[in-house]
Amino acid sequence: MTTLSSGFARARRWLRNHPLAFDATLAFCTLIAMICSSFTDPGDGHGPPAFGARTPELFSVLLMTLTAAALVLRRRRPMQVLAVTAALAAVEYVLMDPPAPVVMSTVIALYTVASRTDRPTTWRVGLLTMGGLTAAAMVFGSTPWYSQENFGVFAWTGLASAAGDAVRSRRAFVDAIRERAERAERTREEEARRRVAEERLRIARDLHDVVAHHIALVNVQAGVAAHVMDKRPDQAKEALAHVRDASRSALNELRVTVGLLRQQGDPEAPTEPAPGLAVLGELVTTFRNAGLPVEVACADRDRLPAAVDLAAYRVIQEALTNVRKHAGAGARAEVSVVRVGATAEVTVLDNGRGSAGRSPGTGPAGGTGPDGGGPGDGDGQAGGGHGLVGMRERVTALGGALTAGPRYGGGFRVHAILPVEARTGEPDRPGTAGGTGLRR
């Protein structure tokens, strides 16, 4: 049984791959069926049909051969084949009595048309074929108009139309399901690629925020230690202690970040490794230890949503890092976080004069400009850094706005407006971040 079914499956695949051969086989089988039926006399309806009771005329055999041959082209020219077979079947009904079953070819041709066209066309063509052949059989036949042979013509042509329309509907339904599945698969792949890109961007932004701040402080304190090592060893030891603390904090945050990346299947795991405004005091202390006086005015720091809390913390961290790096000696900074209606406003001001080697792409020389590195520090916008981009993306991803520019009378100002009801469920799209931009 298995061998037989596999043989049928192979034959079916071969015929599907060779439609012309299938149609030729179908035409030959139809011709054999028509010739065999033409030898059968249906009788008067009170007994079984008698085979061999009659012999088809040569003209009928010719018509049956022509209609069967036309079926070979039924896929390529369905309408033309239907017209030819229907016309020859009508000729058979008009000229021959009793007629041979030439209408068999018309039934197959009508099925083909119905399965390959739309429903309105099937209705029009089907009714025309059914009515025309049935009328020819009733009018020109020797049997009464109400005989079963005449109604059989109507029934078989109608059945062919209905079967072809059903096959066409099922084929369209299957194609629609297949197309929907392929489209869903493409959508899943695109969504997966988009999520991977967004996750890479988020990881890069977090790593930059973690590393840039602490490495900047380590660089400053190491420079202080090297400068006073010989003359003021106590101050050098204090600077080295700050270096140790900053490096330990950087390692701890990197460990947390890497640990989150290695976690799998933990729904309770946090999605962001960074702290918030609750530890703003510790952040400010590190800058004060590095020699940057910072004044803080922060209200409602514990009432902000987690995403807004994180974004505010990162904006302050990045802005203060740039103040320390580029504002110059004697600079002071002011940080404020206030709640204004449905938004939280974060402001970082400084009175610095800026370093002489600052990149012109990072803002005016008199300010701190977000991530405004000089040509040699590698962290400015023009120098290839990503702090400015990351700060901008964090704010705009939550539906907020970020502006940065020089202050009147000197210094620089970074101002972020964050909605308290942040759109945390919306992905951080890089294209969205570029919409707000930084106005200088």
Provide key terms for this protein.
two-stranded antiparallel sheet; 440 residues; five-stranded mixed beta sheet; alpha+beta
Notes on the structure:
The chain is of the alpha+beta class and about 450 residues long. Helices cover about 60% and strands about 10% of the residues. The protein has 12 helices and 7 strands. The protein has helices at about 1-15, 20-40, 60-70, 80-95, 105-115, 120-140, 150-230, 235-260, 280-290, 305-325, 385-395, 430-435; strands at about 40, 50, 295-300, 335-340, 345-350, 400-405, 410-420. The strands form 2 sheets. It has a 5-stranded mixed β-sheet, covered by helices on one side. It has a two-stranded antiparallel ribbon with strand order 1-2. Helix 3 packs antiparallel against helix 4 (about 80-95) and helix 4 packs parallel to helix 6. The radius of gyration is 43 Å and the shape is rod-shaped. The chain starts with a helix and ends in a 7-residue tail after the last helix. Mean pLDDT is about 75; it is low at about 355-385 and about 425-440.
- The count of helical stretches stands at 12
Rounded mean pLDDT is 76
Q: Largest sheet, order of strands side by side? A: 3-4-5-7-6
The major beta sheet can be summarized as: 5 strands, mixed
Gyration radius, to the nearest Å?
43 Å
Name the helicity range.
55-70%
Order of helices and strands: HHEEHHHHHHHEHEEHEEH
DSSP strand content? 5-15%
Rounded to the nearest angstrom, the distance between the terminal CA atoms is: 82 Å
Apparent shape? rod-shaped
Number of E strands: 7
pLDDT < 50 runs, ≥5 residues: 355-385, 424-440
Query: By helix and strand content, what is the structural category?
Result: alpha+beta
